[in-house]
Description:
Elements: H1 4-7, H2 9-35, H3 39-75, H4 80-105, H5 111-134
Helix pairs in contact: 2-3, 2-5, 3-4, 4-5
Amino acid sequence: xxxxxxxxxxxxxxxxxxxxxxxxxxxxxxxxxxxxxxxxxxxxxxxxxxxxxxxxxxxxxxxxxxxxxxxxxxxxxxxxxxxxxxxxxxxxxxxxxxxxxxxxxxxxxxxxxxxxxxxxxxxxxxxxxxxxxxxxxx
Length: 138
């Protein structure tokens, strides 16, 4: 069973918004470092951002998939297609993080890495909006 914060739109939205705002701030910092060609520091920041996505958003996604999503489908089978779509969003986030990690292993930190982090933000933002539409209001 998922915790109460995951089951209610307002508190769930707050969890999403906090993590997404942090990701935006870190990605903006990375973009500035890459543009200023401060690549050693940019590489450090990129690893921090990867850790952020893994520990905040992807860990949250795993909790949703193992608890909340199953509960939502059990209580309302008509939400099954929406849950499949939301799970696919999580898979896209995982894929992007995996690609970024490969690029960083090769010490590559450039616009391509920044663009993937920006894609993570966009996919997560759209995902959060869709998810909040199917959560109970209180």
